[in-house]
Amino acid sequence: MRLSRYFLPVLKENPSEAQIVSHRYMLRAGMIKQQAAGIYSWLPLGFKVLKRIEQIVHEEQIRAGHIPLLMPTLQPADLWRESGRYDDYGEEMLRITDRHKRDMLYGPTNEEMITDIFRSHVSSYKDLPLTLYHIQWKFRDEIRPRFGVMRGREFLMKDGYNFDLDYESAIHAYNRHMVSYLRTYERMGLQAIPMRAASGPIGGDNTHEFLVLASTGESEVFYDAAITDLKFGDRVVNYDDRAECEAIVKEWTAPYARTDETHDEAIFAEIPEERRRSSRGIEVGQIFYFGTKYSEPMGANVVTADGSRVPVHMGSHGIGVSRLLGAIIEASHDDKGIIWPEGVTPFHAGIVNLKQGDSSTDLACEALYRDLSARGLEPLYDDRDERAGAKFATMDLIGLPWRITVGPRGISAGKVELTNRRTGESEEMSSGAAVDRLAQIYAGI
Amino acid sequence: MRLSRYFLPVLKENPSEAQIVSHRYMLRAGMIKQQAAGIYSWLPLGFKVLKRIEQIVHEEQIRAGHIPLLMPTLQPADLWRESGRYDDYGEEMLRITDRHKRDMLYGPTNEEMITDIFRSHVSSYKDLPLTLYHIQWKFRDEIRPRFGVMRGREFLMKDGYNFDLDYESAIHAYNRHMVSYLRTYERMGLQAIPMRAASGPIGGDNTHEFLVLASTGESEVFYDAAITDLKFGDRVVNYDDRAECEAIVKEWTAPYARTDETHDEAIFAEIPEERRRSSRGIEVGQIFYFGTKYSEPMGANVVTADGSRVPVHMGSHGIGVSRLLGAIIEASHDDKGIIWPEGVTPFHAGIVNLKQGDSSTDLACEALYRDLSARGLEPLYDDRDERAGAKFATMDLIGLPWRITVGPRGISAGKVELTNRRTGESEEMSSGAAVDRLAQIYAGI
Q: How does it assemble (chains A, B) (predicted)?
């Protein structure tokens, strides 16, 4: 993309309404625009990151054997009356009446609807196990939306639901989700720690939240430093293998890690003092096993091998897709702007032309643009007639992990400069070497 | 995907509520499930086709130089009070009140919001031309939703908006959209004819609808048969070239083609009788030029080169993404089921194992599955323990364009059977030849 043809409305001043760094940088980098309290438009740059995150979530869910579908944003109230949650949910549920005076609502979550889909179409144990998920906009009418997309009202979430014949199989689904989530967050450049959580209004016995450590987090967290040494890496997982998934879950749940809701001082005190940590964390996902809480009242039963009818064991598993943008920025920025991890960056590299209009630098930039594109990379070329300082400031603010700087002096020596956004380190090399280096870096992502 | 692990709830009986063939087949093929009047869940097979269509729309919009973003589903009523449409829109607008008693609505379209984004960030003619679009769920509270996704209430639409300095530039944007739409529909295997239309509540002087000919269409259409001979083909278009785009638009608008709303019997009568056609059509898109209708009341102005301030010229351009599934099926089916064009098929080919459990056919099917996947194709392997007849019926119903049948007799002769869903023609060949053939067919799509 050429910046002269893009829509990237960066702001020079700090927006006064933004209290935390991710909100501030998302506004300044022209990623979002507030349309009403807690409701945002995703401007082109923000939309690109949102799509990258969504794509990673899809890929990892499909890898785990989970099946994508899409439920609508609006739901009939009657479904929620069946589970008993219509009256329980409170004012966070946005209730709507249509022209025929039917009670509807903007879905804050989808346990009822997915259970309805299941009971309408599945009746035999032979069709189990089954895990269905979708990535869809939700609405929760927060009384005081704040922190930008971190605590919005209209937000994008991946929510998946497993249907299993018995407890053991449902726990395997739970473990499978934990494993797939660990992989998902790591691909986004995040360390999200699974922490034992308290069950909320969804209900459930086994539940873990995934928290990203950040000083602006809404939860207080306590953990054994040993957990931050764990890496998922590029291990290949057979998601059908119960023992393999269970072993990975054990590895990540053995070190102490809890939020304030489940924190136990006595157990925490047993950790060697030098490994005891407390911090704040941002919740970016949660997994639940809740058994037959919805299948029983809603009649989601299957016939077993011996001919009896039993309610299925379920769980629900969520990733806060839109919130992740905020969490990633909270975890990865400096005083100049965002620092995108390579896995989610909106563009793979920026090209800065130091002397727009100079035919040799223009030609070199165009060639770089073409060569990077030919290698499957997407560069953002700052081809505006601007000072070098302004171009650098924009690149730093929007946080592309790599920048290639092209100037007349370098070109006459056959060199461009490749700069790493995180370390600030620059290296001179030929254009071809810079393209090769970037292709190699991104091939490993 | 292996069918034994998929969620494909096909129905044996014809659902009584479905009056038209696309609705019937989408329900029978397990593509959708109604959750409330005019509100559907997209089951896995339907979701896959929806994503393919969405992907084609994105690719063609980006090719034309248009920039994707994403606006929220809910909008504040105040924006619509500025344009004067809040009171005009009538009962099709779903009005919502949040917990703080603020008036909101579920967006039926986005002229107001995109104009708000534009005026907040753009103030100079130097930032023009600009075309922004999104693909987002909309809601129109139809009094009598029917025909499945063809006339739903919650529906997915691509809507794009151009911002230009003057009339000529805006007309180029209009032409660019027409060209990109012709390409878009043709990639989906559809012939969508641009027809001069009457302007609706959005307003506008220049407007064309795109109609797919089908007996179940909602509009009566009149056209010169010459237009159905036009093919876009694989021509490469320079979307910046005004003359080139204009010439393509002329080519497609020269033959008479109008809906009943703009039909003119006198002009129609001048077409040679053997080329005069009347039929019914399904609207799958519309482009509008409406000038300063929104920019003026909403203050979307830019400063020109001579320092004056002028309201920008705008247009809006829509493609009915979810409705396209219905339109494609209406245009492409037989009495056994759907026939997907290769460009939008949910899976590239079906593999039917005639004797599940026979080790030689099982092995041959697994090898085929692997080989197709390795070539970047996505097969659906019917590995259920079912009669051949039932497997064929399912494949015919869900409409994959190609089927590979693997049986013990063929395998002993080193052959599989490749069948074309549309023609019904079968050909025996080696597994390797079938994989090569399919890879070749899809490489051209």
A: Homodimer.
Query: Read out DSSP for B208-264?
Result: EEEEEE-TT-SEEEEEEGGGGG---TT----TT-HHHHHHHHHHHHSS-EEETTT--
Where do we find the tokens 């979430």? A157
Q: How much of chain A is helix, strand and coil, in % rounded to 5? A: 40, 30, 35
Which of A 117-176 lie inside 8 A of B, CB atoms? 117, 120-122, 130, 132, 134, 137, 139, 141, 143, 154
Contact assessment for residue A368 and residue A404, using Cβ atoms and an 8 Å cutoff: yes
Residue A315, pLDDT score: 96
The residues of chain A that CATH labels 3.40.50.800 are 349-443
Please say if the pLDDT value at position B202 is more than 70: no
Q: pLDDT tens digits for A126-178?
A: 999 999 999 999 999 999 998 999 999 999 999 999 999 999 999 999 999 99
Task: Give the CATH architecture of domain A3-338.
Answer: 2-Layer Sandwich (3.30)
The length of chain A in residues reads: 445
- What ipTM was reported for this prediction? 0.96
In 3D space, the residue among B339, B363, B341 whose CA is nearest the CA of residue B431 turns out to be B363
CB A54 within 8 A of CB A135: yes
B40 touches chain A (CB under 8 A): yes
Q: Which CATH class is domain B349-443?
A: alpha beta
CB contact under 8 A, B36 and A9: no
Q: How many helices (H) and strands (E) does chain B have?
A: 14, 23
B233: alpha, beta or left, given left = phi > 0 and alpha = psi -120 to 50?
left
What residues contact A330, with CB distance under 8 A and at least 6 apart?
Answer: A20, A21, A22, A150, A212, A214, A215, A216, A217, A282
Residue B279 in this model has a pLDDT that exceeds 90: yes
Beta strands B402-406 and B379-382 are: unpaired
Q: Is the peptide bond before B108 cis (omega within 30 degrees of 0)?
A: no
Q: Does B5 touch chain A (CB under 8 A)?
A: yes
- Is A262:A196 a contact under the CB 8 Å cutoff? yes
A315-351 residue pLDDT tens: 999 999 999 999 999 999 999 999 999 999 999 999 9
Q: Is B30 on the interface with A (CB under 8 A)?
A: yes
Helix (H) or strand (E) holding B89: none
Query: What CA–CA distance (Å, rounded) separates B55 from B47?
Result: 12
Whether residue B240 contacts residue B63, with contact meaning beta carbons closer than 8 Å, is answered with no
Amino acid symbol at A234 = D
- The four Cα atoms A434, A438, A440, A441 give a dihedral, to 10 degrees, of 140
Spatial CA neighbour of B324 closest among B344, B300, B301, B305: B344
Distance, CA of B346 to CA of B395 (rounded, Å) = 12
**Residue B68 CA, distance from chain mean position:** 17
Out of B42, B73, B92, closest to residue A154 by CB = B73
Token pair in block for residue B254: 């020269």
pLDDT score recorded for residue B200 = 62
Q: For chain B, where do the domains classified as CATH 3.30.930.10 start and end?
A: 3-338
